[in-house]
Specification:
Elements lengths: L10 H16 L5 H8 L3 H13 L3 E4 L4 E4 L1 H31 L2 E8 L2 E8 L14 E3 L4 H7 L4 H9 L13 H14 L2 E4 L6 E9 L5 E10 H4 L2 H21 L19
Antiparallel strand pairs: 1-2, 3-4, 3-8, 4-5, 6-7, 7-8
């Protein structure tokens, strides 16, 4: 049971998805006639759905043979979903280990459209007023997750982030390009990012990048806790090292272990 009432279901969308599912499950090119026969909808309706799905690249129409097949946009989405699930599967044991060791919340995120997106969060029983939930988006510049990834981006990706408007999430958020680039330099030097009350008041986060074999940041992982519990220098150092070690193990499990050369931080034209 989905728990969704019929009043909220758009039937044409459901029927279009029925057509999409049929075509993609076949693993071969299909005709309009056989699609109509199998989905048991009017021919004109099925034709319109097939053409609309093809126009949106979820399907692909072969005009010469008058057949339909899975389209590039659907394949791209399926690939992204598979990659994210693989990342979660490899990261979860490490996230649980970190959460149990430090009794604090551990977050996993990726970059999407100029923001970071939380794709997994492992909490503990300890109280923490953290607003982030799986699926939430936060700015790159105000989060340790975002800073950890941004520091390892090439300039053509880092530059637009730095030059874009940097809204203040709290009174502590750094909102100028020079400060962000200075933080990126610090991240590349020590291998982790620290954010204290920049994204949420009273919350401190330590974030590390998860790098692929070329040194590109495919994701980031962080430990979050109230500032008073995490700001101790020894605790920060211990958590940062544990996070870095965990990130390396995740990269290794995914077959993307950075090599001694490519793992070195990229130079991205830091300003004085």
């Amino acid at each position: 049971m989905s728990g969704i009432g019929d009043d909220y279901v758009v039937q044409p969308v459901m029927r279009a998805l029925q057509v999409l599912e049929y075509v993609t499950r076949q693993g071969r090119d299909v005709t309009l006639t056989e699609t109509v026969h199998n989905v048991k909808l009017p021919k004109t309706t099925v034709f319109r759905y097939l053409q609309s799905l093809s126009a949106a690249s979820f399907l692909e129409y072969d005009l010469r043979h008058d057949r339909y097949r899975t389209g590039p946009r659907f394949r791209d989405l399926a690939r992204v979903d598979r990659d994210l699930q693989d990342l979660r599967d490899h990261a979860r044991p490490e996230m649980h280990r970190l959460a149990e060791t430090f009794c604090e919340t551990v977050n996993l995120a990726v970059r999407s459209q100029g923001e970071i997106v939380y794709i997994d969060i492992i909490g503990t029983g300890r109280p923490v007023r953290m607003q982030a939930r799986v699926g939430h988006r936060h700015p790159v510049h105000s989060t340790s997750l975002g800073k950890a990834m941004a520091a390892y981006l090439p300039e053509d990706a880092m530059g637009p982030i730095c030059r874009a408007p940097l809204p203040a999430m709290t009174i502590n958020t750094l909102t100028d390009e020079r400060s962000l680039r200075r933080q990126a330099s610090n991240v590349r030097r020590c291998g982790y990012a620290v954010e204290i009350g920049e994204n949420e008041d009273g919350l401190m986060c330590i974030g590390v990048p998860i790098l692929d074999g070329s040194g590109y940041p495919v994701a980031a992982m962080s430990l979050s806790a109230p500032e008073k519990r995490l700001r101790c220098r020894d605790m920060t150092a211990q958590a940062a090292q544990a996070l870095k070690d965990a990130a390396l193990r995740i990269s290794a499990c995914m077959g993307t272990m950075p090599s001694p050369v490519t793992a070195a931080p990229m130079q991205i034209g830091m300003q004085a």
